[in-house]
Amino acid sequence: MLQTFRFKQMEPLNAVFVASEDLVSAWCAHSGRTDVLAFTDADANAAYDAIVKRRPRVLVLEQIVAATSRGAALIDCVRNDSSLGGVEIRLLPPESAAAIASSHAHAPAGALVALAHPMQPRKSRRAVRVRLPEGIEAIVDGRPVQLIDISVLGAQIVSWDVLKPNQRIRVTLEVSTAAPRLQASVAWATYEMPRAMEPHYRAGVEFRDADPARVQDFYARLRG
Known about the structure:
Elements: E1 15-19, H1 21-30, E2 36-40, H2 44-54, E3 58-62, H3 63-66, H4 69-80, E4 88-92, H5 94-102, H6 109-115, E5 117-118, E6 130-131, E7 137-140, E8 143-150, E9 154-159, E10 168-172, E11 181-192, E12 200-207, H7 212-222
Parallel strand pairs: 1-2, 1-3, 3-4
Antiparallel strand pairs: 4-5, 6-8, 7-8, 7-10, 8-9, 9-12, 10-11, 11-12
Helix pairs in contact: 1-5, 2-4
């Protein structure tokens, strides 16, 4: 099993690096760095925890990892966390990843950052996303899920049942037999194994037939 670098409590962190297992192995073998924390894509949740706690200057993701559901979820979490506004996100293209994998010289952190390209700013959201209080539940295909945030176009949920990208689902926003069911689809999903919770799926869902006024009324009532 791959081991990540260990650091002193107050040592500054220059970058968090998230890549495929082979590339992380190569980086750890040749870099000799203590200011870059490297994680495999399977450890994206641990990478996010490190970002929140250590506040690195840069998050570098291997480009092929950024295109996966785990990578997309990590990017989304960092971008949606207002306290992480100072963390720059950069993508490492395949040719640069190959150069790192084949190098036998110690690579400075600055070289890793320089090889990665700044991620393009995302376009403005089509709708405002509202963060919900903890403990708010909804129903997906008859099973309870936790609602994380919501907009008139979709929501982020945590489910203890399997969810896969492009899966068609039915969502009931209120735990009530009289509440309307919305047609939706899973935009992205990632499996998480946090220490403080049972393993679960975190997913972004897109509503297909939601009444915007009803959704707005739902989260307005939750926020008081």
